Description:
globular; 10 helices; TIM Barrel; 2 domains; 9-stranded mixed β-sheet; binds magnesium ion; alpha/beta; binds SN-glycerol-3-phosphate
Amino acid sequence: MRRRSRIPVSAISFYLPQFDMVITALFLLVAFMAIVLVKHCLLWQPMDVSYLYQNGYLKFGHRGSSMLAPENTLTSFLKAVEQGVNTIEVDVLLTKDGKVVCSHNHDLESETDGYGYIDEKMYEELKEVDAGVKFPEYSPCRIPLLEEVFDIVPEDIIVDIEIKSKWAFDLRTAKYVAEIIRERNLYHRVLVSSFHPFVIGRIKWIDKRIPTAYLWEDQHVPNILKKPRFINLVHPDMLHPDVYFVDKNLIRFAQRKGLRIHPWTVNNQPAIEWLLKLGADGIFSDFPGLMNRAVEKIGGSNETA
Ligand code: G3P
Ligand code: MG
């Protein structure tokens, strides 16, 4: 009769401690990851950006004053300032040679007489393009560099730099924008916003002093990005929701977390008044005059520094 093979006692005593060690190591790793996740999601605070609100609500001129002048041009930004905004929103993207220029669209066809994509053009080529084709009175009008905005817009105007990326992982523009902010020491008068959580993360990674705003839209995004709690992964300092998302609960959620909230884009005075009374800290509009009248009506200040 064949004898059943047995594991020798010496082998058991050799393997058991190793098995225990693996289990213990795994347990410690899982515990460590859980602590990191809980800390990341719950124990964070947005930076204090109260210095931006010295003159009351932020009134964002959306792409400048885009109903009266070619959007995202120097003319449009100056017009918005003339109309009394204290903040301008500027969409930016990157040229092939790494220049940060102001444009909402990656393609040139939508707003200019040029053709092709901005990220495939050298900045020199863009100088030939007329961004004023929709407003003949301002034509020709150049696509400006972001830096030119800071050359001409008064010092007391806050600039919201919205980084447009073609892909969620295109983080190059963030690097160039952060460099401009650092070189010109613009910390006191800028915020950087983006629809892409990785861009927000990258900005903070490069320079913690730059306030960030997470843009929230209703379309073309996975459902997870629509949940307010998602910001616990992103860690912005401000929330920029599509106005259709905004209700009392969202405003309370932002306030509990200490996040300033600025809905976009609101072109109706009663709606602006309602949002400000609800607790919004600012509003984006294509019509600066509407924001001024709404602020005045609810008893806020329209003064700039
Ligand atoms: O930053 C607010 C708003 O500008 C976001 O949408 O498409 O106009 O850049 P969009
Ligand atoms: Mg924008």
